[in-house]
Design brief:
The chain is mainly alpha-helical and about 130 residues long. Helices cover about 90% and strands about 0% of the residues.
Length: about 130
Protein backbone atom coordinates (compact mmCIF):
# COMPACT_ATOMS: atom_id res chain seq x y z
CA UNK A 1 0.00 0.00 0.00
CA UNK A 2 1.29 3.44 -0.94
CA UNK A 3 1.69 6.18 1.58
CA UNK A 4 -0.76 9.13 1.68
CA UNK A 5 2.24 11.46 1.22
CA UNK A 6 2.83 10.09 -2.27
CA UNK A 7 -0.82 10.71 -3.17
CA UNK A 8 -0.63 14.26 -1.87
CA UNK A 9 2.48 14.91 -3.98
CA UNK A 10 0.68 13.68 -7.10
CA UNK A 11 -2.31 15.94 -6.45
CA UNK A 12 -0.11 18.95 -5.77
CA UNK A 13 1.84 18.46 -8.98
CA UNK A 14 -1.19 17.63 -11.13
CA UNK A 15 -2.58 21.16 -11.47
CA UNK A 16 0.83 22.50 -12.47
CA UNK A 17 1.14 19.87 -15.20
CA UNK A 18 -2.32 20.61 -16.54
CA UNK A 19 -1.61 24.36 -16.53
CA UNK A 20 1.59 23.83 -18.48
CA UNK A 21 -0.23 21.72 -21.06
CA UNK A 22 -3.04 24.25 -21.41
CA UNK A 23 -0.52 27.08 -21.83
CA UNK A 24 1.21 25.14 -24.56
CA UNK A 25 -2.08 24.53 -26.32
CA UNK A 26 -2.92 28.20 -26.08
CA UNK A 27 0.36 29.16 -27.72
CA UNK A 28 -0.07 26.55 -30.43
CA UNK A 29 -3.66 27.66 -31.04
CA UNK A 30 -2.53 31.27 -31.24
CA UNK A 31 0.21 30.41 -33.72
CA UNK A 32 -2.18 28.39 -35.86
CA UNK A 33 -4.66 31.28 -35.94
CA UNK A 34 -1.93 33.86 -36.57
CA UNK A 35 -0.52 31.86 -39.48
CA UNK A 36 -4.03 31.55 -40.94
CA UNK A 37 -4.43 35.32 -40.63
CA UNK A 38 -1.10 35.84 -42.39
CA UNK A 39 -2.24 33.68 -45.32
CA UNK A 40 -5.57 35.49 -45.56
CA UNK A 41 -4.02 38.94 -45.35
CA UNK A 42 -1.38 38.14 -47.94
CA UNK A 43 -4.23 37.11 -50.26
CA UNK A 44 -6.04 40.39 -49.48
CA UNK A 45 -2.91 42.36 -50.32
CA UNK A 46 -2.58 40.49 -53.62
CA UNK A 47 -6.22 41.30 -54.38
CA UNK A 48 -5.64 44.97 -53.57
CA UNK A 49 -2.67 45.01 -55.91
CA UNK A 50 -4.90 43.76 -58.72
CA UNK A 51 -7.55 46.34 -57.90
CA UNK A 52 -4.96 49.10 -57.89
CA UNK A 53 -4.01 48.32 -61.47
CA UNK A 54 -7.47 49.57 -62.46
CA UNK A 55 -7.19 52.80 -60.48
CA UNK A 56 -6.61 56.21 -61.98
CA UNK A 57 -3.09 57.63 -62.22
CA UNK A 58 -3.52 60.15 -59.39
CA UNK A 59 -5.12 57.62 -57.10
CA UNK A 60 -2.61 54.95 -58.09
CA UNK A 61 0.34 56.87 -56.61
CA UNK A 62 -1.56 57.46 -53.37
CA UNK A 63 -2.70 53.86 -53.29
CA UNK A 64 0.79 52.46 -53.93
CA UNK A 65 2.01 54.29 -50.81
CA UNK A 66 -0.92 52.94 -48.81
CA UNK A 67 -0.37 49.41 -50.13
CA UNK A 68 3.31 49.62 -49.20
CA UNK A 69 2.28 50.54 -45.65
CA UNK A 70 0.02 47.46 -45.54
CA UNK A 71 2.87 45.25 -46.72
CA UNK A 72 5.30 46.73 -44.19
CA UNK A 73 2.83 46.23 -41.34
CA UNK A 74 2.13 42.70 -42.51
CA UNK A 75 5.88 42.01 -42.47
CA UNK A 76 6.11 43.35 -38.92
CA UNK A 77 3.19 41.15 -37.88
CA UNK A 78 4.85 38.14 -39.48
CA UNK A 79 8.08 38.86 -37.57
CA UNK A 80 6.16 39.18 -34.31
CA UNK A 81 4.47 35.81 -34.94
CA UNK A 82 7.91 34.31 -35.57
CA UNK A 83 9.05 35.80 -32.26
CA UNK A 84 6.09 34.17 -30.49
CA UNK A 85 6.92 30.84 -32.10
CA UNK A 86 10.50 30.99 -30.84
CA UNK A 87 9.59 32.13 -27.36
CA UNK A 88 9.43 30.08 -24.21
CA UNK A 89 6.26 29.45 -22.29
CA UNK A 90 7.01 32.14 -19.74
CA UNK A 91 7.37 35.02 -22.21
CA UNK A 92 5.13 34.25 -25.13
CA UNK A 93 2.12 36.20 -23.84
CA UNK A 94 4.07 39.46 -23.89
CA UNK A 95 5.17 38.75 -27.44
CA UNK A 96 1.59 37.83 -28.32
CA UNK A 97 0.43 41.29 -27.25
CA UNK A 98 3.05 42.85 -29.51
CA UNK A 99 1.92 40.64 -32.39
CA UNK A 100 -1.69 41.62 -31.75
CA UNK A 101 -0.72 45.30 -31.84
CA UNK A 102 1.07 44.74 -35.15
CA UNK A 103 -2.04 42.98 -36.49
CA UNK A 104 -4.17 46.00 -35.55
CA UNK A 105 -1.74 48.14 -37.55
CA UNK A 106 -2.20 45.83 -40.55
CA UNK A 107 -5.98 46.21 -40.39
CA UNK A 108 -5.72 50.01 -40.04
CA UNK A 109 -3.33 50.32 -42.98
CA UNK A 110 -5.63 48.08 -45.03
CA UNK A 111 -8.64 50.28 -44.24
CA UNK A 112 -6.69 53.35 -45.35
CA UNK A 113 -5.59 51.65 -48.57
CA UNK A 114 -9.08 50.50 -49.47
CA UNK A 115 -10.42 53.93 -48.62
CA UNK A 116 -8.24 55.50 -51.30
CA UNK A 117 -9.45 52.94 -53.85
CA UNK A 118 -13.06 53.48 -52.87
CA UNK A 119 -12.63 57.25 -53.30
CA UNK A 120 -11.27 56.66 -56.80
CA UNK A 121 -14.15 54.35 -57.68
CA UNK A 122 -16.68 56.87 -56.38
CA UNK A 123 -14.96 59.67 -58.31
CA UNK A 124 -15.03 57.64 -61.56
CA UNK A 125 -18.74 56.87 -61.10
CA UNK A 126 -19.53 60.59 -60.82
CA UNK A 127 -17.82 61.40 -64.09
Amino acid sequence: MRSPGWLLAVFLLLPWSVSAAVGDDDKNSYLKKANQELREWNAKVDDLQKRSEKAGVRTRAEFDRALQAVRENLGIFQQKVTDVKGSGESGWTTLRRRADEAFRDVRQAYREATSSLDKDKHHKEKQ
